[in-house]
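Form 7-S
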Amino acid sequence: MASALPLGEPAPLDGLLPPSAADGAHGRAFGVYVHVPFCRVRCGYCDFNTYTASELRGARQVDYADHAIGEIRMSRRVLEASEVIQRPAETVFFGGGTPTLLPAADLVRMLDAVRSEFGLTAGAEVTTEANPDSVGPDDLARLAEGGFTRVSFGMQSAVPHVLAALDRTHDPARVPLVVRWARDAGLDVSLDLIYGTPGESLGDWRRSVEAAIAERPDHLSAYALIVEDGTKLARQIRRGELAEPSDDLEADMYELADELLGAAGYEWYEVSNWATAAGHRSRHNLGYWRGDDWWGVGPGAHSHVGGVRWWNAKHPAAYADRVTAGHSPAVGREVLDASTRETERVLLATRLRDGLSVASLGSGGRRVVAGLIADDLVDARAALAGALMLTNRGRLFADTVVRRLLEDSVVE
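Output:
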């Protein structure tokens, strides 16, 4: 099952935000995230807020777009009543779950609602996630016609036994097909990979990265497998059926991916993300890492506006009930104090190639940076130019870098 919602104060039924949100929203970019919580099968490693058909408890997939559109319409009223400055969406991201289990027409209807209620900036980035076996050429063409600009395919691996260990259902041969169909439709393409799967060798991983590069995606993500409590994978490891991922092997896999991607013309811009050019970076995810504002639509979705964070009811049935009754689906929220916001800024921006200014850390922070340079965790030339940029080694120990920055009270 998905992890529990965070603690916080109850959210009001009307969804109104505290006055601080209006002040904090000035000057921030705005995006929209739409969570589509449906999956055909639950992957053994997955801890996301997703549901198979047998887990819906009366909620209906066919009704989902209408409920999400109801929240989108409500969101504009909430922001207006809360006196938050209205901004068009610079990015829209449909994630899940598997958004493309819904008909393309439903995804386009939800995007149309975002366009109607908020507007989209010129050149807005509009992405949907998709599994290689959840879309066909007609679906992708319809999405592109409806305003989508980008698709992110959950490739995960090119090796059949690795996909089987992850409970992924697609054939590796499907990936070149869907990439070609997306290109034919005029969509930018991102491929997602996972490394450190039990039973995956360094040779297996090389095969997957090389297969991904061969498709020449605009963007590629590579994330280490995390064994989450309560998942099927965690139970298999606890019973000794699968081996726990090796930290040393995962480090070797990361370094290999970075080497292969760099040689192929990809540049890292976030610890786990590479792109062929700055214009192909995931602008939506950059908004998260830079602390921008976004409205999260759907069951369990999180939102952030002006230093106020809130989250929706998790289950699709509970979410549908609240929206149908005319209530906000938000069930909890927290107002971030200055210390928490600064901690999150350092935590997230440190992962970016160009995300954290050394000057913003104060004199104490600059002393810490000197030590990080000495330990080959931070690039010396970039630091002299005013930017905290992780070295190759620093990316392997990004959590250590963040901990040292925060422990030494870098903010003055």
